[in-house]
Amino acid sequence: MKWSELSIHTTNEAIESVSNILHEAGASGVVIEDSDDFSKEREDQFGEIWSLNADDFPKDGVILKAYLPVNSFLGETVEAIKLAVNNLVTFDINIGANVVTISEVNEEEWATAWKKYYHPVKISQRFTIVPTWETYNPVSSDELIIELDPGMAFGTGTHPTTVMSLQALEKTVKTGERVIDIGTGSGVLAIGAALLGAREVHALDLDDIAVKAAGINVKLNKVQDRVTVAGGNLVDTIDEPGDVVVANILAEIIMSFTDDAFKVVKPGGHYITSGIISAKKNDVKEALEGSGFVIEDIMMMEDWVTIISKKPE
Ligand SMILES: C[S@@+](CC[C@H](N)C(=O)[O-])C[C@H]1O[C@@H](n2cnc3c(N)ncnc32)[C@H](O)[C@@H]1O
């Protein structure tokens, strides 16, 4: 998977609010390039020679940079960020030039750049996501740790769609159940389901890079005896239904296979759909109901929606 660098030229006053917006949109870290940092007089108490490169700093104001995965959500995520930044004006925050640019980052650049900003994060009552290169001591005995090296696959675990999917799994998965994870990305949801006690988890993805990354993360979390990862899509690869099926994919894709999903959920089982931008909530809800699902819970975080539905007994 490719990564994009989103940069926003704004003001000193807006740093905190814009950083918040970027974090909430799923950016793992924000780089701040402040014109004041270049022009400011530096103390050289230890004899250091300051040699900052003028090209790394804006002439005025502040540039905030964030890294976002290039995936089907990127367009909507960038639009949501722009809207939220524009809205700061209504709180009397000066957003300055407000020039937003987006560029692709090559894989090596990204591979080293983003790791600096990705740290352990508690994302639900029980789950904490820990990057493989960090050490972390659990705070409570029932805390579940997912170790992750997303590599180039989607799923650092901190995107609102992933966070709500894990919370929904926490609500639905019972010990000994079979779970199907459609569009596994880094494998984060499949691993989460196994840690919650699933007997068997079948994870699949159309993207070969995701299948590889998920396979590595599954081994890293020592759940390979319960989790299988395969390439392919729902229709071609599932022969045995699951008690819980989860799909964190774009709304349009979810709506295209609600009938197929209905066939692979056991009667009385749950179907968790995430990755739904709030404007599409009702369309997805109708598609699920049209295929026979009963809506049990609708979760919302920022501009994203996750729906837990049930297949009647
Ligand atoms: C938004 S990511 C979700 C990753 C991870 N499950 C999470 O929650 O963070 C969606 C993933 O679905 C995969 N995908 C998209 N359409 C698919 C389909 N029809 N069947 C299987 N995988 C699909 C993409 O390759 C991508 O890795």
UniProtKB/TrEMBL annotation:
S-adenosyl-L-methionine binds at T162, G183, D205, N248. It is an enzyme of class 2 (transferase). InterPro entries: Ribosomal_L11_MeTrfase_PrmA, Ribosomal_PrmA_MeTrfase, SAM-dependent_MTases_sf. One of its GO terms (biological process) is methylation. One of its GO terms (molecular function) is protein-lysine N-methyltransferase activity. Its EC number is 2.1.1.-. It catalyses: L-lysyl-[protein] + 3 S-adenosyl-L-methionine = N(6),N(6),N(6)-trimethyl-L-lysyl-[protein] + 3 S-adenosyl-L-homocysteine + 3 H(+). Gene3D superfamilies: Vaccinia Virus protein VP39 (3.40.50.150). GO terms for cellular component: cytoplasm; ribosome. Keywords: Cytoplasm, Methyltransferase, Ribonucleoprotein, Ribosomal protein, S-adenosyl-L-methionine, Transferase. It is found in: Cytoplasm. The keyword Chloroplast does not apply. The keyword Zinc-finger does not apply. Methylates ribosomal protein L11. Belongs to the methyltransferase superfamily. PrmA family. This is Ribosomal protein L11 methyltransferase. It comes from Planococcus halotolerans.
